Amino acid sequence: MTRDHIDINDFTILVETCTSTEPMVDSCSFEEPSIGVAFYGSGNVEVSVDYADKQAPYSHTKGLVLSFYADENVKFTHKVTANRPLQCIVVVTALKNLEKLPNGEGEIFANFLNELVNPSDAYVEGPRFFMPPEMSNIVQQVFKNKYHGKTKMMFFRSQMTVLLSHFFGHIASSENEKLKAKEQDKLQLVKKILLENIDNPPSLSELSRQIGLNTYALKKDFKNLFGVPVFKYLQNQRLEVANNLIRNEKATVQEAAWHVGYDSLSSFSNAFVKKFGYRPSQIK
């Protein structure tokens, strides 16, 4: 058994390989509630996830990508045999750390893996699929790497970022393919309406009525197509407009806040800091 354990920011990366001429079992669990994505290589190992009195078995895992939420009572078991060796990469973060992740990664997890961010059980399976060739090539390069020390850390950091990008990109593409062209046109119209009424946008029910799509479908399909909820998209656009106004000296902070529909300067400033990492008053 070979197990590399690397911490990068608030992510933990586990790279596990195991070959055995005799059947053996390798079990592991997490110390706290966590969200993870597992990428399985060519070993085709059998996996069992045990929690409470339930079990989730997985076989034919060659090339499988599996996202999941698991608390500290969930046990993952790999059954290794001579013709089913273990090759597995797991990228995991504690649920409590999502908001601390850099570069908006926590928001990406919340948008695409909402069922994992808000779990309904000790173990929740998220999206799973068999990886396309470009993802498979990255995984195989990880298992073949011969770097050490800081060079290995740099290599792992770059490859994990690429893997997660492919993972979320695949989910987004799959969801988009499910939307009919006519529905996509309606959702593009929603964006247009929001941008034209950025300071005083219509409510969800008003938007639904204008485009001819019920509120539930509007919320679900908008998020699937654009990656963020309707009013999170609006907030992002408001803050981008305000940022440009202040930076180009076309408005004061207070004027920019009013222009994009904020009545409270403190609410505007707090939202601005959360998005950009600095206060609007710090723009020079």
Layout of secondary structure:
Blueprint (H helix, E strand, L loop, with lengths): L1 E7 L2 E8 L5 E5 L5 E7 L5 E6 L2 E5 L5 E7 L4 E6 L5 E9 L10 H8 L1 H4 L5 E8 L2 H12 L4 H30 L2 H16 L7 H8 L3 H12 L3 H18 L5 H7 L5 H12 L8
Antiparallel strand pairs: 1-2, 2-9, 3-8, 4-7, 4-9, 5-6, 5-8, 7-10
Helix share bin: 40-55%
Biggest β-sheet, characterized? Answer: 6 strands, antiparallel
Q: DSSP strand (E) fraction?
A: 15-25%
Structural class: alpha+beta
What is the 3D form?
elongated
Radius of gyration: 22 Å
CATH class of the largest domain: Mainly Beta
Describe the structure.
The protein folds into 2 domains: 2-129 and 143-177, Jelly Rolls, CATH 2.60.120.10; 181-282, Homeodomain-like (Arc Repressor Mutant, subunit A, Orthogonal Bundle). Helix content is 45%, strand content 24%. The protein is built from 10 helices and 10 strands. The strands form 2 sheets. It has a 6-stranded antiparallel sheet. Strands 3-8-5-6 form a 4-stranded antiparallel sheet, with no helix packed on it. The termini are far apart.
Task: Give a brief description.
The protein has 284 residues and is α+β, with helices and mostly antiparallel strands. It has helices at 105-112, 114-117, 133-144, 149-178, 181-196, 204-211, 215-226, 230-247, 253-259, 265-276; strands at residues 2-8, 11-18, 24-28, 34-40, 46-51, 54-58, 64-70, 75-80, 86-94, 123-130. The strands form two sheets. The protein has a six-stranded antiparallel β-sheet with strand order 1-2-9-4-7-10. Strands 3-8-5-6 form a four-stranded antiparallel β-sheet, with no helix packed on it.
